[in-house]
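#onboarding

Welcome to the new folks! Below is a worked example of what a typical request in this channel looks like: someone posts a single protein sequence, and someone else replies with the predicted structure as tokens. Don't worry about understanding the tokens yet, we'll cover that in week two.

Example request:
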Amino acid sequence: MRIAVFGVGAIGRYFGWRLTSSGENVVFVARGENLRVLSEQGLTVDTLEGTSVLHPLHVVEDPKEAGQVDAVILGVKAWQVPEAAEAIRPLIGPDTVVLPLQNGLEAPTHLVKALGPECVLGGLCQIVVFIVGPGHIRHAAAEPYVAFGELDNRPSERTQRLQAAFRRAGVKCEIPLDIHRSMWEKFLLIASFSGVAAVTRAPAGVIRTIPETRAMLEEAMREILAVAKARGVSLTADAMNSTMSFIEGLAPTATASMQRDIMEGRPSELSEQVGAVVRLGREAGVDAPLFSALYRSLLPQELRVRGEVAF
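Example response:
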């Protein structure tokens, strides 16, 4: 398949590396220092087994240089999706699929608004991968996993082709019966853990050990389950237990990407994760008091980083 990776953060680089290494025709769309390093030095990936260097790569700055592709892997941050949706138009042909791999639930909605529903999939991924530097990432934990599907959950040849490409690359890949439920199941994990971890600034081992923070984490999950139910999303009966089990299995030092962005003074996905619970709950007539408190507590720093307030 001819695949474009738009957004060369840790996620985009990792899955682009896997797909390129397995023989897919992958083009990376990058700019600035990432463009220079990827073009001149290639991509270095520290895996759990060792270090891999992939060079040369097909890297372009302007999506027009890449032309139409079979699939676009969208690896930008969730808050960058509306802008990215406009930028990827030159990559979209009559049979192209766009696979958003953002944290949160609203990326497909933004993409449909900009591009129409025909090319947009629902999607998610699970992996712990960090940026070491331009052109250098580190896979730290978790078996790489991708799931996606048509927004109406119908079987399609194009999703099966993309699934086959990921599987050739050695990535566990599924097409769930209900992609929206799968996205909510991930959201149950990422929004609750990110919100509690960001406000406490503590790693997983501390949060799950202290009774008060563990209780806060569980309460956050209960609020998400209530919002999901009100919006007609049927999560599995043991969704909360399985999510807590996943957190129990994280390394004690594990942190969330939103938490790291906030602690390191970068724009974060606060609105798309914590704020989304409040927003989606309000639309469905469900209060989320803990998430409201988390959002209000973290908002001043977010606005400062974005230059909207000064203190």
